[in-house]
Design a protein that fits this description.
Blueprint (H helix, E strand, L loop, with lengths): L13 E2 L6 E2 L10 E2 L2 E2 L7
Antiparallel strand pairs: 1-2, 3-4
């Protein structure tokens, strides 16, 4: 009973408004470099 809080929950994903791909909430999208509607990073090139 002491370790009942050690259970792992499922990761939360949301659908990106612009690309339609799944991403973690409150994380920078590494493909586009966008966060909260602002360009934070330069996009990765494949």
């Amino acid at each position: 009973m002491r370790r009942s809080h050690h259970a792992l929950g499922a990761n939360a994903f949301i659908e990106d408004k612009d690309t339609g791909e799944l991403r973690r909430p409150h994380h920078v999208d590494l493909k586009t470099g966008m966060y909260n509607g602002k360009q934070i990073l330069t996009p990765k090139e494949d």
